[in-house]
Amino acid sequence: MPDDQQTDLNALAALARKGDRDALEVLVRAIQKDVYNLAVRFLWHPQDAEDATQEILIRIITGLATFEGRSRFRTWVYRVASNALLTQGRKRMEQAALSFDAFAEALADGLAPGTPEPSSSASDDPAEALMLEEVKVGCTHAMLLCLDRDHRLAYILGEVLDLDHGEGADILVITRAAFRKRLSRATQRITSFMTGHCGLIDSGNQCRCRLKIGCAIKRGHVRPEAPLFAQSLTHAQRFPEVLRTIRQLEQGRRAAALYRSHPDLAPSTPFNTWLKQLLTFESG
Description:
The protein has one domain (3-283). The longest helix is centred in the N-terminal third of the chain and has 23 residues, at 21-43. It is globular, with a radius of gyration of 20 Å. The protein has helices spanning 3-17, 21-43, 46-62, 73-87, 92-95, 100-108, 126-144, 149-160, 165-172, 176-197, 209-218, 233-247, 251-261, 269-283. It is an all-alpha fold. The protein is built from 14 helices and no strands.
């Protein structure tokens, strides 16, 4: 977020602390998408992310008086969100999370050695393009669950959100050296796994999103009538071009670039209704 927007957020926070309800509403609406997308990447399931986001936004509103403006407001928001995510109970997908070794076996399941990838382009069939997007985002987010919570959050902050080490350390309330060490370990694990198994990162790998669609639907991991992650057909159809750009990078930089290429997700209509009611109550 540009510095001028950060300044605006800090100014809004100062007004909200003084009881300006209009400023509070603008402030919460400005940050709710950032909080939600952090939660989605950390928890995988959008419903769990919405539940967590509700808790986090309430913490932000009720704790706004503790924000003294010494840091960027977004940094403070991520600190509140990170603390909530790290201290809450394990959610449904976390409880079912696999180790990297077990995840590798799951990716290989149903793929016969030498299985050719279908030749059709993802953009040829809109329905298939959306299913490819669903499998791609769902699978790569699930890989993050192979990391423990501390390393997962460090990776999301440092690599996916591309925050600098100083801000990441401030958010997690650890030293810069500790953040760098945690991020380095997480990056090595994700990069190593993707380089060895993901066909998006290395075209020589066996696993292909298109080859996994049928299996994912059969097992209920993907529901064509109600996708969790594929919200934009335009983005899905553009991904082959994005992937070509990613594959031109050094291999060690491809995993992070793949995560950054995922579009931000929007919360559901019920969540937006809840948020509107919350802000109406706060303004009452």
